[in-house]
Amino acid sequence: HLSGWMEIFQIILSCPVCQDIFKDPVLLPCSHSFCNVCVQQWWRTKQTRVCPVCKAVSPRSNIPPRNLVLKNLCEAFLLEVESGVVCRLHTERLKLYCVDHQTPVCIVCRDSSQHRNHTFTPVNEAAEFHRNGLLKLKAKWEKTDEDIKNQAGETERKVREEFRVLRTFLQEEENVRIAALKQEEIGSHHNHATLEISYCTS
Protein backbone atom coordinates (compact mmCIF):
# COMPACT_ATOMS: atom_id res chain seq x y z
CA HIS A 1 0.00 0.00 0.00
CA LEU A 2 1.00 3.57 -0.57
CA SER A 3 1.88 5.77 2.35
CA GLY A 4 2.46 9.40 3.13
CA TRP A 5 1.50 12.46 1.19
CA MET A 6 2.00 10.78 -2.20
CA GLU A 7 -0.82 8.34 -1.38
CA ILE A 8 -3.07 11.22 -0.34
CA PHE A 9 -2.29 13.13 -3.51
CA GLN A 10 -2.94 10.11 -5.71
CA ILE A 11 -6.35 9.55 -4.10
CA ILE A 12 -7.33 13.22 -4.39
CA LEU A 13 -6.14 13.47 -7.99
CA SER A 14 -7.79 10.24 -9.19
CA CYS A 15 -10.98 10.22 -11.23
CA PRO A 16 -13.76 8.25 -9.46
CA VAL A 17 -14.73 6.61 -12.77
CA CYS A 18 -11.41 5.44 -14.28
CA GLN A 19 -9.44 5.45 -11.00
CA ASP A 20 -6.55 7.12 -12.82
CA ILE A 21 -5.09 10.62 -12.51
CA PHE A 22 -7.53 13.18 -13.92
CA LYS A 23 -7.20 13.98 -17.62
CA ASP A 24 -8.87 17.21 -18.71
CA PRO A 25 -11.03 17.35 -15.54
CA VAL A 26 -14.45 19.02 -15.57
CA LEU A 27 -16.54 20.25 -12.63
CA LEU A 28 -20.22 19.28 -12.21
CA PRO A 29 -22.79 21.50 -10.42
CA CYS A 30 -22.60 19.13 -7.43
CA SER A 31 -18.89 20.02 -7.08
CA HIS A 32 -17.61 16.56 -8.06
CA SER A 33 -14.92 16.40 -10.74
CA PHE A 34 -14.26 13.78 -13.43
CA CYS A 35 -12.23 13.32 -16.57
CA ASN A 36 -14.21 14.94 -19.36
CA VAL A 37 -14.14 11.74 -21.42
CA CYS A 38 -15.17 9.61 -18.42
CA VAL A 39 -18.24 11.64 -17.52
CA GLN A 40 -19.37 11.91 -21.15
CA GLN A 41 -19.11 8.13 -21.56
CA TRP A 42 -20.92 7.65 -18.25
CA TRP A 43 -23.79 9.86 -19.36
CA ARG A 44 -24.18 7.94 -22.64
CA THR A 45 -25.19 4.88 -20.64
CA LYS A 46 -27.74 6.79 -18.55
CA GLN A 47 -31.13 8.30 -19.35
CA THR A 48 -30.31 11.40 -17.31
CA ARG A 49 -27.04 13.21 -16.74
CA VAL A 50 -26.45 12.05 -13.19
CA CYS A 51 -23.25 12.43 -11.18
CA PRO A 52 -21.40 9.08 -10.95
CA VAL A 53 -20.77 9.73 -7.25
CA CYS A 54 -23.79 11.42 -5.68
CA LYS A 55 -26.35 10.85 -8.46
CA ALA A 56 -27.20 14.56 -8.60
CA VAL A 57 -28.75 15.48 -11.97
CA SER A 58 -27.05 17.99 -14.26
CA PRO A 59 -29.16 19.90 -16.82
CA ARG A 60 -28.57 18.75 -20.41
CA SER A 61 -28.05 22.35 -21.35
CA ASN A 62 -25.20 22.61 -18.88
CA ILE A 63 -21.68 22.21 -20.33
CA PRO A 64 -19.35 21.19 -17.48
CA PRO A 65 -16.59 23.80 -17.10
CA ARG A 66 -12.95 22.82 -17.03
CA ASN A 67 -11.51 22.46 -13.53
CA LEU A 68 -8.28 24.36 -14.20
CA VAL A 69 -7.02 24.25 -10.61
CA LEU A 70 -7.35 20.46 -10.53
CA LYS A 71 -5.81 20.21 -13.99
CA ASN A 72 -2.75 22.16 -12.85
CA LEU A 73 -2.38 20.01 -9.73
CA CYS A 74 -2.52 16.83 -11.81
CA GLU A 75 0.07 18.14 -14.23
CA ALA A 76 2.41 19.07 -11.36
CA PHE A 77 1.94 15.64 -9.79
CA LEU A 78 2.64 13.80 -13.05
CA LEU A 79 5.64 16.00 -13.72
CA GLU A 80 7.18 14.94 -10.41
CA VAL A 81 6.44 11.29 -11.16
CA GLU A 82 8.00 11.54 -14.63
CA SER A 83 11.03 13.41 -13.32
CA GLY A 84 12.22 10.25 -11.60
CA VAL A 85 11.77 11.58 -8.06
CA VAL A 86 8.96 9.10 -7.38
CA CYS A 87 8.27 5.55 -8.54
CA ARG A 88 6.19 5.30 -11.72
CA LEU A 89 4.49 2.15 -10.45
CA HIS A 90 3.70 3.13 -6.86
CA THR A 91 4.19 6.93 -6.80
CA GLU A 92 6.42 6.52 -3.73
CA ARG A 93 9.74 8.30 -3.24
CA LEU A 94 12.71 6.52 -4.82
CA LYS A 95 14.75 6.13 -1.64
CA LEU A 96 16.54 2.85 -2.42
CA TYR A 97 18.80 1.48 -5.14
CA CYS A 98 18.49 -2.16 -6.25
CA VAL A 99 22.06 -3.40 -6.78
CA ASP A 100 20.87 -6.50 -8.68
CA HIS A 101 18.77 -4.54 -11.21
CA GLN A 102 20.91 -1.40 -10.96
CA THR A 103 17.90 0.89 -10.72
CA PRO A 104 16.31 3.21 -8.11
CA VAL A 105 13.28 1.70 -6.35
CA CYS A 106 10.74 2.66 -3.71
CA ILE A 107 9.91 0.84 -0.48
CA VAL A 108 6.94 -0.91 -2.13
CA CYS A 109 9.21 -2.16 -4.94
CA ARG A 110 11.64 -3.50 -2.34
CA ASP A 111 8.94 -5.66 -0.78
CA SER A 112 7.59 -6.91 -4.12
CA SER A 113 8.29 -10.35 -5.61
CA GLN A 114 10.19 -8.70 -8.47
CA HIS A 115 12.96 -7.66 -6.07
CA ARG A 116 12.80 -10.56 -3.61
CA ASN A 117 16.17 -11.43 -2.03
CA HIS A 118 17.85 -8.51 -3.81
CA THR A 119 20.50 -6.25 -2.32
CA PHE A 120 19.57 -2.61 -1.67
CA THR A 121 21.45 0.51 -0.69
CA PRO A 122 20.27 4.08 0.00
CA VAL A 123 19.86 5.87 -3.32
CA ASN A 124 22.12 8.77 -2.26
CA GLU A 125 24.94 6.33 -1.44
CA ALA A 126 24.48 4.60 -4.80
CA ALA A 127 24.54 7.97 -6.56
CA GLU A 128 27.78 8.90 -4.78
CA PHE A 129 29.30 5.50 -5.66
CA HIS A 130 28.46 5.90 -9.35
CA ARG A 131 29.63 9.52 -9.28
CA ASN A 132 33.02 8.44 -7.92
CA GLY A 133 33.19 5.72 -10.57
CA LEU A 134 32.54 8.24 -13.33
CA LEU A 135 35.16 10.61 -11.90
CA LYS A 136 37.75 7.81 -11.84
CA LEU A 137 36.85 6.85 -15.41
CA LYS A 138 37.11 10.49 -16.48
CA ALA A 139 40.53 10.79 -14.80
CA LYS A 140 41.66 7.59 -16.55
CA TRP A 141 40.58 8.96 -19.93
CA GLU A 142 42.31 12.26 -19.26
CA LYS A 143 45.51 10.42 -18.25
CA THR A 144 45.35 8.28 -21.39
CA ASP A 145 44.83 11.39 -23.49
CA GLU A 146 47.78 13.08 -21.76
CA ASP A 147 49.95 9.99 -22.30
CA ILE A 148 49.07 9.97 -25.99
CA LYS A 149 49.95 13.66 -26.27
CA ASN A 150 53.24 13.10 -24.42
CA GLN A 151 54.09 10.10 -26.59
CA ALA A 152 53.27 12.05 -29.72
CA GLY A 153 55.47 14.92 -28.50
CA GLU A 154 58.37 12.56 -27.75
CA THR A 155 58.01 10.88 -31.16
CA GLU A 156 58.01 14.28 -32.87
CA ARG A 157 61.15 15.27 -30.96
CA LYS A 158 62.93 12.07 -32.00
CA VAL A 159 61.93 12.49 -35.64
CA ARG A 160 63.15 16.09 -35.65
CA GLU A 161 66.45 15.00 -34.05
CA GLU A 162 66.94 12.20 -36.57
CA PHE A 163 66.32 14.57 -39.48
CA ARG A 164 68.73 17.11 -37.93
CA VAL A 165 71.43 14.44 -37.70
CA LEU A 166 70.66 13.34 -41.26
CA ARG A 167 70.87 16.92 -42.56
CA THR A 168 74.18 17.40 -40.73
CA PHE A 169 75.53 14.18 -42.21
CA LEU A 170 74.42 15.11 -45.72
CA GLN A 171 75.93 18.59 -45.35
CA GLU A 172 79.25 17.10 -44.20
CA GLU A 173 79.13 14.54 -47.01
CA GLU A 174 78.47 17.34 -49.49
CA ASN A 175 81.39 19.36 -48.12
CA VAL A 176 83.75 16.34 -48.30
CA ARG A 177 82.79 15.58 -51.90
CA ILE A 178 83.11 19.20 -52.99
CA ALA A 179 86.49 19.41 -51.28
CA ALA A 180 87.56 16.19 -53.02
CA LEU A 181 86.45 17.54 -56.39
CA LYS A 182 88.33 20.77 -55.79
CA GLN A 183 91.41 18.83 -54.75
CA GLU A 184 91.11 16.66 -57.85
CA GLU A 185 90.73 19.77 -59.98
CA ILE A 186 93.79 21.39 -58.40
CA GLY A 187 95.78 18.19 -58.96
CA SER A 188 94.70 18.07 -62.58
CA HIS A 189 95.78 21.68 -63.17
CA HIS A 190 99.09 20.99 -61.42
CA ASN A 191 99.81 17.95 -63.60
CA HIS A 192 98.89 19.89 -66.74
CA ALA A 193 101.18 22.77 -65.77
CA THR A 194 104.02 20.35 -65.05
CA LEU A 195 103.63 18.77 -68.49
CA GLU A 196 103.71 22.19 -70.17
CA ILE A 197 106.88 23.18 -68.29
CA SER A 198 108.56 19.91 -69.22
CA TYR A 199 107.61 20.39 -72.88
CA CYS A 200 109.00 23.92 -72.96
CA THR A 201 112.33 22.99 -71.39
CA SER A 202 112.94 19.97 -73.56
What can be said about this structure in brief?
Helix content is about 55%, strand content about 5%. With about 200 residues, the chain is mostly helical. The chain has two domains: about 1-85, Herpes Virus-1; about 140-200.
Q: Could you say what the CATH topology of the largest domain is called?
A: Herpes Virus-1
Main sheet: strands, sense, barrel: 3 strands, antiparallel
Total DSSP helices: 5
Question: In order across it, which strands form the biggest sheet?
Answer: 4-3-5
Helix content: 55-70%
Strand content: 5-15%
> What Rg, in angstroms, do the CA atoms define?
45 Å
Mind explaining what this structure looks like?
- This protein is mainly alpha-helical and 202 residues long.
- It folds into 2 domains: 1-83, Herpes Virus-1; 142-201.
- It has 5 helices and 5 strands; from the N terminus they run H-E-E-H-H-E-E-H-E-H.
- A hairpin with a 4-residue loop joins strand 3 (96-98) and strand 4 (103-105).
- The model has no long low-confidence stretch (mean pLDDT 80).
Topology:
Elements: H1 4-12, E1 25-27, E2 33-35, H2 36-44, H3 68-82, E3 96-98, E4 103-105, H4 107-110, E5 120-122, H5 123-201
Antiparallel strand pairs: 1-2, 3-4, 3-5
Pfam families: zf-B_box, zf-C3HC4
Keywords: Metal-binding, Zinc, Zinc-finger
Family: Belongs to the TRIM/RBCC family.
